[in-house]
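for the writeup, i need someone to sanity check this before i put it in the appendix. the sequnce is what the collaborator sent (i think, or maybe the updated version? ugh). structure was predicted straight from it, no edits. if anything looks off just tell me and ill rerun, i have time this weekend
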Amino acid sequence: MPSLSPQPSIPPPSSPPAPPGGPGTGLHRSLGVVDGVAIAASSTAATTSIAIGMGTIATIVGLQAPALLLLAFLPVLGIATAYARLNRSEPNCGNGYTWVGKSLGPWPGFLTGWVTIAGSVIFCAYTSAVMGSVVLTFANKAGLHSLAGIALDPSSTGVSTAVGLVLLLGLTALAVTGMRATTRFQFALLVFEYTVLLAFCGWALITGEQSFSFSWFNPFEISDGTAFAQGMVLAVFFFWGWDAAFSVTEETKSPGDSARGGLIALFAMLGLFLFASVAFQREMSLTELIENGPQALPYLGQKLAAEPWATLPLVALMFSAAASVQSTLIPTARGLLAMGRDRTMGPLWTRVHPRYGTPAAGTIVVLSIAAVIALLAVGIPRLSDMLLAAVNSIGLLVALYYGLTALACAVRFRSSLHDGLRTAVLAVGVPAVSGLMLLGLGGYLGYSYLTMSDHFELSPDNGWFMFSLPTFIILVGLGMAAVAKYVRRSPYFTTGRGTDADAIALPMDRAAV
């Protein structure tokens, strides 16, 4: 595979930004709004979030999931407007890494890119276990409960991970073959899973025996501050993924298509999450939600229908997990491509496949790292505990990089304060408030983790363990930033700018298809 060789200098700030997806990038500029919606919706993984999240959030805040999902949408929408505005100003597949570096400085910029990538890799690792668990559940339904003396237990982290890694390998191969094949595959999965989800949740909403209560939408019913903060971070995690559309800016026909795709998917996810949360609570009591945890969606199918129809939610969950893993590989590899061409990461990440025009080498390495993390997570024997630990850690990382990106928008467009009230509010006020809210929630939750335990234990109930995961990731990121600055001598740490799309030359130079 050919390798990118970054130019020794970065274009001066006065140079006009190059159009995304031009011939210098090597990435095919062939995607539109619909493709962006597919990537954002798949990466958000509504079915997976609902399946493993409704029971998880119930263990934290009881029946207040609808309230927190609605409340969390507000800062997330503010973050989305910041992404859209920054994307119009400077389209770049590095998005937050590039924007934060230019507005707040290279150190927070690098950290933004680093935690974005780390959260995505962890997500691929634990979602592969979800896929494996679903496959094992199918095997159990078919009467296969052991193989070669190994119990095929869907609740076992080890066996689920082993099966999931095989599936992860196939999804990586599809992601490498190009964006067109990927988005077509995503559409097929989305249509099926949303049809099943809407049908079962709609039936639960109509026939559920639990009385509907408007108190479900009242966040003041949550009296514990730590539970509120943890629930909010988890609710933000529900929406995480819509920004994947911005990672393929240099493969879209227009930068505006990325923003439209991401925002359309975000509003669609809000409606779907609220609909599903109310439906789950109409059909299941709080005790049922907590007891079933990440198996809440398959349990809903068993309550509402007989076989083979009861298996459909399980199939939808498998499709959603597969789609979300694949769509997470896409922005992760492209974020590393942006960092590689700035020499903040090694040249490996800038290799583009000569036939498919995708960052194939980076995608394969991301798969390998996710596989290693998945194997390390086998140390947490119960799948539900491993999922809760991973979700909490990713939630804190997402709050950090969303918050920094929103603040970067407020700083970048602070001159808009003189352009009228509406522009000032949308360009500066909303991003600043949204960013500070998420950073504040993350900080409060981190402090709560530190004070809730007096010893270390591999458990999602142990505060020191929960605090140590994101802290370790951030410390490693700062170490990698030091290497980029002092060893690689990346121009990013001198100029504070990411490389423009066409500021480097590739060995291949051909028109987009």
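Strands lie at 146-147, 150-151. The CA atoms of residues 137 and 154 lie 6 Å apart.
thx in advance!!
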